[in-house]
């Protein structure tokens, strides 16, 4: 045995969770790269409801679809490298957007620049895809009895950044202007990327593999270090394996509603509060953050513990009942206070459901966690890109009242997700015993 083989692993599960959460916090802020200041772009460019919906959803295009290949890559090479690349791409997109603003804003900015603004917004959203990479890594770091709680902490705390940026961006817009706001954001991304690269560590199995150990020996030593689950094949094999399991697609459909809904409404709500209820831009951002974005993230952080206690199936059923009732209220009300209460409950339902779905994932797809994480997070999160233009279409067709009636979209998909959750409850798999015993967590 060489000295490298005998050396202890770098870091521990708590360090991994901390730096992954920080990195995700940095990257996930890209969700709202346009949302909180959408009115500024809407006024300068003269955007229709559909074009506005496409613009605020641009970060979700890459942030969702890149989850599939990058999480599977993490399943074959470890999480640090793909995670760092995603953060770097996000910084590159923000740098491109900043360059456009420096050279054209305000007098030279026009619809001619819309395609570039869309592309750089999409590139800025690459950091969102780090979600599935982090989910894969944490799944390998933690044992089953704590995994749901730790996954929810990672996802819940990491997703607080859009809420904070939804508050800060309109304030920064008033203080330093649009260009200054994005310049500060660019620096934030660069610093966050450097911090992640300096402190991130791969899970034990990948550390031993990178030291040259054969697969069987690396698994044995990683098991001694506390790792319970292991990748079963290369990146593409992980995706193919997950895609052959029907439950992967059921989880994906539910995540399309829960997390996709969170992404879509985080970017759409500022315009909803501003145009339907008459709140100014700064107030609309603060209300969005406090009643939905931040609150939903906190509910998501608690959702893992709830799922571990009561079971993911029961938790998803309860959560989607809350989603259906909340959206039904939002469709028919123009009253500000009713809308505030319905938004809070909607955010709670979406947040807890998102946590419960990922608590179920390792149990439903134990042989392809990375591939399943990519499918669920990527195609599921794609709801954040698909839905805002549809909401914009309601506005184009019905005017201001379309901001309310557009919620019928979530009423319908919420009912579909509820039906899937009930189906999973009726046909849930029996508990499995890990094939490799593991010592207690650190």
Automatic annotation (TrEMBL):
One of its GO terms (biological process) is nitrate assimilation. The chain crosses the membrane at residues 16-38, 44-62, 83-105, 117-140, 152-176, 182-201, 249-269, 281-302, 314-332, 338-361, 373-395, 407-425. GO terms for cellular component: membrane. It is a multi-pass membrane protein. Keywords: Membrane, Nitrate assimilation, Transmembrane, Transmembrane helix. Residues 16-429 form the Major facilitator superfamily (MFS) profile domain. One of its GO terms (molecular function) is nitrate transmembrane transporter activity. Belongs to the major facilitator superfamily. Nitrate/nitrite porter (TC 2.A.1.8) family. This is MFS transporter. It comes from Natronorubrum daqingense.
